[in-house]
Amino acid sequence: MGVFDGKVALVTGAARGNGEGISRVIASKGGTVVLTDLSEKVTDTAKDIGCGAVGYVMDVCDYDAVKRVVDDVVAKLGRIDVLANNAGITCITPFLETTDELRDRTLKVLQNGVWNCTKAVLPYFLKANYGRIVNISSVTGPVVCDPYEVAYSMAKAGVMGFTRAVAVEYAARNITCNAVLPGYILTNMARETAERSKPGHADEIIGEIEKGIPMGRMGTPQDIGYLAAFLASDEASYITGIPVIIDGGNALPETNAVGGQK
Hints:
Elements lengths: L7 E4 L5 H12 L3 E6 L3 H9 L4 E4 L5 H15 L4 E4 L14 H29 L2 E6 L13 H21 L4 E8 L5 H10 L4 H10 L9 H12 L10 E4 L16
Parallel strand pairs: 1-2, 1-4, 2-3, 4-5, 5-6, 6-7
Helix pairs in contact: 1-8, 3-4, 4-5, 6-7
């Protein structure tokens, strides 16, 4: 038997990357996964996963749209047991060049998206007296920072505060809320960011990053999936309100220059 047998998980930003990784792992452990994303590719990803997975095109920034999807899922599948708030965007721009529009867009997706999805799902969790929320934050903001990441860092640090607040408010109702803090994960988005930073040399950029990671490699969406699945399972029923760093040890060294040692 799988640890998610009979359970339904809703994963945002699931067309690719970490959201797809989370969805695949939960499905492999017996869960019925509802994948959501702005991209219409989400339906193809759901079909490829199989195991009863379904895809919805959904904008996490639009509360009414989120609620419609959540209500439809419960009407069709009878329940939602797990919410994985993964949808996100990057923002790597010098602070003084970060427009208000870019700042607000970053906060809207990374913070309001988590707020909207949690708010839409919580009434069903309360009715069932059961629920598991896993928020994908980041090491960037709560733990470390690099230049040009002010908006992103602020947003991801806010996700951690939200996680703790929801955790303590609903702990007595058998609802847990934890956060995954990824470091460098080799997603399509990460590769695209590397390509933008040095066109035609993405592999070179990725290789240099990996030299500075104690484990010698970037993480994979499957790595994120296994951690998120654990936190969303009953095996983690006494864990709530915590950040879990998954970065191959990258935040450990006092000096962590690319490829260098102190």
